[in-house]
Fold this protein.
Amino acid sequence: MKQFFLDERGDSNMVSIIVIIVIVLVVAVIFKDGITTAAQNIMKALTKWADTGTKSTPKVTQ
């Protein structure tokens, strides 16, 4: 197992990727309430838009 972690083959940016993932997770936790509110507002707007679109069906003329 120790050899697996000491092996230098593979992606050299692994540490950078892990750091970026950690930063994104920390920011998400910090702004959790704001992100939740924004997502709820977007879903409400989309639902309202979808409801108005389905209630007004166009009349077919022949």
